[in-house]
Design goal:
Its EC number is 3.2.1.4. Belongs to the glycosyl hydrolase 5 (cellulase A) family. InterPro entries: GH (IPR017853), Glyco_hydro_5 (IPR001547). One of its GO terms (molecular function) is cellulase activity. Has endoglucanase activity on substrates containing beta-1,4 glycosidic bonds, like in carboxymethylcellulose (CMC), hydroxyethylcellulose (HEC) and beta-glucan. Involved in the degradation of complex natural cellulosic substrates. This protein is an alpha/beta fold. It has one domain: TIM Barrel. It is built from 11 helices and 10 strands. The strands form 2 sheets. It has an 8-stranded parallel β-barrel, surrounded by 5 helices. A two-stranded antiparallel ribbon has the order 4-5. Helix 5 packs parallel to helix 6 and helix 8 packs parallel to helix 9. The structure holds 2-acetamido-2-deoxy-beta-D-glucopyranose (NAG) (2 copies). One 2-acetamido-2-deoxy-beta-D-glucopyranose (NAG) binds next to helix 4.
Length: 330
């Protein structure tokens, strides 16, 4: 329920208004929101130029989405643009611009997920230097350790990599983050094969071995609803495909005492996808013992008429799909 409708309900139903600070979010989820793409764009040109190859999310449209009841923004960026040597110094302007977006989100009381959108790679090579990766994360977590609304996402969509390496990179990230003194923040881990929920149990069972002294690991999975789960086709397989594709992973979370988040999901604005997305969200909300949220793919200033574009005011998903998310917003 939105604050405005809550106040109307209170005004109609009783003499005493509920103070704003006592309002509980109506969302069943701890985290509900959208990805914020742009700073990872133009990845074939590294570092590339601000305004030509890449852009940062717009804090004013984020504010509009917060007004709609979103409380979580997963912010894409490229590791190479931030730290050209991975373990070395920052590019200050890029860190500054990233921090501006993070602070705008968290100053509003929402969560900012830092998403190195690197697919387990650095300069197009699979990252095998787990110690270097740990240092990268120790350095980055050090910048944000004072902000408990920041969430660290170890890497976007590891894929076609050695399975043990994916486990070790995630553990290295966790160890680096905690070594930085960032002890309060959640850490989102991702699996191999694009972290797909539909293949999670077959591919990523070894990930249950990850450990965190703070016990704040959240398993981030992604799920699209077209035939190959890539999110590139506007046709969804069926109205029930969303539920079908996350059922096994849900059981895996329950069986192993883990919690998860759907860190990317979407569907185009057509009847089958609307039914499929809405069914999947309902299923997540029916299983909040293990599913703690969902994050739409994607908002961002440069998506134009992209079918999943959640950017206000004219993105096709903002104008056409927000009503499907509405029951789950705060
Ligand atoms: C940071 O953003 C400013 C605009 O606010 C821009 O002029 C600058 O080029 C950006 N730098 C980087 C490295 O993104
Ligand atoms: C969610 O739970 C309700 C109540 O038990 C049930 O009627 C509904 O079918 C469930 N939805 C999904 C998608 O599992």
């Amino acid at each position: 329920m939105k604050l405005s409708s809550l106040l109307i309900a209170v005004a109609a139903g009783s003499a005493m208004a509920v103070p704003v600070q006592e309002k509980k979010r109506a969302s069943p989820f701890q985290w509900i929101g959208t990805n914020e793409a742009g700073a990872e764009f133009g990845e074939d040109t590294i570092p590339g130029n601000y305004g030509t190859e890449f852009i940062f999310p717009d804090v004013s449209t984020i504010s509009t989405l917060i007004d709609h009841g979103m409380n979580t923004f997963r912010i894409q960026f490229k590791m190479e643009r931030l730290a050209p040597d991975m373990t070395g110094a920052w590019v200050d302007g890029y860190l500054q611009n990233l921090t501006t977006v993070v602070n705008a989100v968290t100053d509003a009381g929402s969560y900012a997920i830092l998403d190195p959108h690197n697919y387990g790679r650095f300069n197009n090579e699979i990252i095998t230097d787990t110690a270097g990766f740990q240092t990268f994360w120790k350095n980055l977590a050090g910048e944000f350790k004072g902000n408990n609304l920041v969430i660290f996402d170890t890497n976007n969509e590891y894929n076609t990599m050695d399975q043990e390496l994916v486990l070790n990179l995630n553990q290295a990230a966790i160890d680096g983050i905690r070594a930085a003194g960032a002890t309060e923040q959640y850490i989102f881990v991702e699996g191999n094969q694009w972290s797909g929920a539909w293949s999670w149990v077959d591919v990523n069972d070894n990930m249950k071995a990850l450990t965190d002294p703070q016990d704040k690991i959240v398993y981030e999975m992604h799920q699209y609803l077209d035939s190959d789960s890539s999110g590139t086709n506007e046709a969804c397989v069926s109205g029930t495909i969303g539920v079908e594709r996350i059922t096994e992973a849900t059981q895996w979370l329950k069986d192993n005492g883990k919690v998860g988040i759907l860190g990317e999901f979407a569907g185009a604005n057509n009847d089958v996808c609307r039914t499929a997305v809405s069914g999947m969200l309902e299923y997540l909300a029916n299983n909040t013992d293990v599913w703690q949220g969902a994050v739409w793919w994607a908002a961002g200033p440069w998506w134009a008429d992209y079918m999943f574009n959640m950017e206000p005011p004219t993105g096709p998903a903002y104008t056409g799909m927000l009503d499907i998310l509405e029951p789950y917003l705060g």
